[in-house]
Each structure stands twice: as structure tokens, then as C-alpha cells.
Design a protein that fits this description.
Elements lengths: L1 H45 L12 H34 L5 H10 L5 H10 L5 H9 L6 H9 L5 H9 L9 H7 L1
Helix pairs in contact: 1-2, 4-5
Length: 182
């Protein structure tokens, strides 16, 4: 039971890291989007006025217009900050549906094809990929089907026992090592 909890915590950690990565990417793009529009507005404000002889309105009206644009820019930036804070607050309220995760793992015993194929290659079982492809391609494999396949393998008995103890809940592969690298 403890190992299942550790595996689930590792899976949740990996999921959380991916969510943070995509959030950082989103905020990075949003930041550059805001800077891009700020530069466009400030470039618009820095455009030199034509000579007075060609002005259709007074320079005072032009200055008023520039101030209105600057005020509008501040309002837009303020709303952007409020929206970002609201999104961060909403993301903090997300919960993991543990029952649904467990149900998905129970329905997908194909996850164990990777460690079984690795063991088959280690013990020189001929055509490990093809055998697993035949077992899993286009079909659902349940606990009984996977255990029957493991029993039919030509590997030592202690290896079969180890493979029989694997479940989608307790197999993490390299997840623990990969999360330590992040």
C-alpha cells in the first residue's frame, strides 16, 4: 500500500511539473504579447507630428489624444494583471480525481508492456516487440490476460514472479529518476 502511495505521488508530481511547465510557457507568451503591444502603442505615440502648416487639428488636441491612449493602456495592463491573478487563484483550486485515476490505471494493463518487453530483451526472448504487439495492438488487456502472457514467457521463475507482482498502479518506470532531474 505504501509503494502504491509513493507511485501515485510520483505520478502526481510529474503531472504537476508538466502543468507548471505549460503555465510558464503560457505566461511567457502572454508577457511577450503584452510587451509587443506596448511597443506598438509607444511607437505610435512617438511618431513625429507633421509640420504645423499641415495640421488639421490643434497640437493641444493631439496631446489630449496621446494622454487618453496612455490612460487606456494602463487600464488594459491593469485588467491583464487582474486576469492573471484570477487564473492563478483558480489553478490553485484544482483537485485530482483519485478515483478516476485509479479507474484509468485498472483499465490499462497495456502500460506493463514496456517492462515486460525490457525483461524479454534481457533474457533474449525472440521477437519481444512482435509478441507484445500481437497481445496489445487494438485490444484491451486485463489483469488475467497480462498474467497469462507473463506465465507463457521463457524466462526464469523468479523473473516471472517479479513480473506477476507488477500492476499499472505500482509500475513507474523511470518516473522517479526523471522527476529528480527537473
Amino acid at each position: 500500500y505504501f509503494s502504491i502511495c509513493i507511485v501515485l505521488l510520483l505520478l502526481l508530481t510529474v503531472l504537476f511539473v508538466f502543468i507548471l511547465f505549460f503555465l510558464q510557457l503560457f505566461f511567457f507568451l502572454l508577457f511577450f504579447f503584452c510587451i509587443f503591444f506596448c511597443l506598438i502603442f509607444f511607437f505610435f505615440l512617438m511618431i513625429r507630428r507633421p509640420p504645423r502648416s499641415t495640421l488639421s487639428s490643434s497640437s493641444a488636441a493631439s496631446d489630449v489624444y496621446k494622454r487618453q491612449v496612455l490612460r487606456s493602456l494602463g487600464v488594459g495592463m491593469g485588467h491583464t494583471v487582474i486576469a492573471l491573478q484570477s487564473n492563478i487563484k483558480a489553478l490553485g483550486r484544482l483537485d485530482v480525481n483519485q478515483e478516476r485515476l485509479d479507474q484509468d490505471l485498472d483499465l490499462n494493463w497495456e502500460v506493463l508492456a514496456e517492462p515486460i518487453q525490457t525483461v524479454m530483451r534481457r533474457y533474449d526472448v525472440p521477437e519481444p516487440y512482435e509478441k507484445l504487439k500481437e497481445l496489445t495492438r487494438g485490444k484491451r488487456v486485463d489483469k488475467v490476460g497480462m498474467q497469462e502472457f507473463v506465465q507463457s514467457l521463457e524466462v526464469p521463475d523468479h523473473v516471472k514472479q517479479t513480473l506477476m507482482q507488477l500492476t499499472p498502479h505500482n509500475y513507474t518506470g523511470l518516473a522517479a529518476e526523471l522527476t529528480r532531474r527537473v
